[in-house]
Amino acid sequence: MNTLSRLKQIALIIGDIAILYIALALTLWVRYGNFFYSKLFNQHLEPFTLVFIIWIAVYYIAGLYALPALKNNLEFKKKFWATNLINTAIAAIFFYGVLTYFSISPRANLAIFLLIFGSADYLWRHFYNWTLAKTDPVSRLLLIGSNKTATEIYDCLIKNPQLGYQVNYWMKEGLEDKEFEHLSQIIVANRINTLVIPAHLKKDGKSAKLIYRTLLLGIEVVDLSTLYEILFQKVPLAELEEVWFLENLAKKHRIYELISAPLEFIFAFVLSIIILPLALIIAILIKLTSPGSAFFSQKRIGKDGKEFIIWKFRTMREDAEKDGPQWANYHKDERVTKIGKFLRWAHLDELPQLYNILRGELSFVGPRPEQPEFVEKLRKELPYYDLRHLTKPGITGWAQINYRYAASVIDSYQKLQYDIYYIKNNSPLLDFLIILRTIKFLITNHA
């Protein structure tokens, strides 16, 4: 079922790429009357390809490949044209400010290209969105359960038909419902091809036999938790039992961890040298605007539950935690200094954490490390909380880009669901996507 979503995104990306190159060919035809001339096309191919790669990345960062966003509504139109405005600026900077190596003069070509591509890609995406909404769903579901997880799944699928799922029948009462005994008949009558069930039904003897019979009807059986994870990209902790963690959180990424550690060290070392002048300026400004050290250090809990000292530029008064650790309030916090507000807004206060990466205590991507006092409280109130310490913490992470700052136990519970999802699905591709979405967050947050 997850493959279906990926195929839809891949088809959309392929369509965008095709339109980019068709628009380039049409531009050369309009400008020169011929695009079959190989030398002319080759001269433009390399520089425009570099721009196209950046454009596709910007499309992703803007969320134009997220299936829930593929609707022909005002929000999509605003996002589409705003993103293309950004891409236009990128292309202009590239061709007018950076381009010296390539022997082309793209000013008129770029204007023609933007007109052709903008119109063609908008029509393509409008058609694609319409097709997703009108096409018969690939997965016709029989949903069993009435708990919060099942309700969230139902609400999501009703609002997002473009995802390719349709709930044809919702059996809310589960085992207590007499309809459950007529499961096969319901499946045939409602043209069901996918059965979505709570995991515990597989353990119930009577239910398991009824579910087993559906295999003869060619039915795909999916756990509620699996579909929830696909739709929301987090795990529903309330649905999970210990056996799930044994099956899904075993050490699967040892090779990636071994390779990524030295690469992160090298990148952090190079980045530290590059930002050193900026770091010195920030340190001086902090010293000039408030008494105390330019740096702030604090105990945090890292991988395997080990304590380490995290470093930041100080953004609060020196005595900010004289009464002990407090939940962060990023909307209004009297303890934050004037320069500290700017540093937090620009996320420049995080720069000293490159030192933690060099020491092997942090990664660029991973669950955000918490203070020992909060960890002690949260491990008592939240099930499976310590599992987030199975991997090295990070400067940014899946929970950070999907959920607001944690200001309560409830917030921490939501972020834990994203953290467990990250640990389960950790990969180079996921880390790369998190970095791209972090860039998007920084840009849109500042805008």
Automatic annotation (TrEMBL):
Listed name of the protein: Bacterial sugar transferase domain-containing protein
Predominant subcellular localization, coarse grouping: membrane
Keyword Membrane: yes
Family the entry assigns: Belongs to the bacterial sugar transferase family.
Name of one Pfam family that matches: Bac_transf
Its membrane topology: Multi-pass membrane protein
Transmembrane intervals: 12-30, 50-68, 80-102, 108-124, 265-286
GO molecular function ontology, one term from the record: phosphotransferase activity, for other substituted phosphate groups
InterPro entries assigned: Bact_transf, EPS_sugar_tfrase
Keyword set, alphabetical order: Membrane, Transferase, Transmembrane, Transmembrane helix
Native organism: Candidatus Harrisonbacteria bacterium RIFCSPHIGHO2_02_FULL_42_16
One Gene Ontology term, aspect cellular component: membrane
Subcellular location: Membrane
Domain Bacterial sugar transferase: residue ranges: 263-443
